[in-house]
Design a protein that fits this description.
Blueprint lengths: L13 H23 L14 E5 L4 E2 L8 E12 L4 E5 L4 E2 L6 E9 L7 H15 L4 E7 L7 H14 L6 E6 L16 E5 L7 H9 L12 E5 L12 E5 L6 H11 L4
Parallel strand pairs: 1-3, 1-11, 2-5, 3-6, 6-7, 7-8, 8-9, 10-11
Antiparallel strand pairs: 3-4
Helix pairs in contact: 2-3
Amino acid sequence: MFFPAAMSKDVMAPSVRRGLGTLACLLMALSIRSEQFPRRNPDRMKAIPSFVLWAWERPEDLRFINPHDTAIAFLANTIHLLQRRVIVRPRLQPLLVPDSTKLIAVVRIEADSDAAFDATQITDAVAAILSRAELPRVVAVQIDFDAARSQRMFYRKLLLELRRRLAKDVPISISALASWCLNDDWISTLPVDEAVPMLFRMGAGTNDVVARLTSGRDFQAKLCQESLGISTDERWASLPGGRRLYVFRSRSWTEQSELAFLAEVQPWR
């Protein structure tokens, strides 16, 4: 927008001043929004295979997998938020995988009811996550935090700081309570590349989720429409196809258990 040099602020028409003030506010709001809600980059997830095994805190020998079509999401750290401290517990169990396996470092966050949820805890938690992202063969990070409504602002700020400090080409995935993917779509503005709806041990609301998916309807949140998280001990007759599938097993994986489960879900993969 061009204004003649002779038109100073003092002689500018009130309507023009109001217009400029409105424009300045709009530009500031857009700048803040861009900083707070970075755009997703769908290309970040393209390198992740469509089948992912969760390897939790137990000894896992997964050298039998085909690393070309299967990735491993392994519990790398557990972060416990206390009142004024952050306790980080690293993985203590062995994990064996083929050399070319793509790994997703999963960080579980647990919080005491009196945790401070302050900037210091964000800094410490993000540092712990970044340390796992630097491990060999790790191509993505996944945050597992069942954030209560009162903890959502903290979680958003943590993810923003993680996105700011993480390498630009490394995707951020989060696990998502199924309710977050339905009517309570608060996750749509999070700076993450994937939200994995957890379709096991859902508790309250299980019937609503089952009815929705088995009737052919999808999750309301678009962020939840590209992947699914299921367990080998909670069977689904069918699920939306064409999605990245994360699978949890309550015991260590074996080649037989993986092959059996692959055969079971193949029709709707």
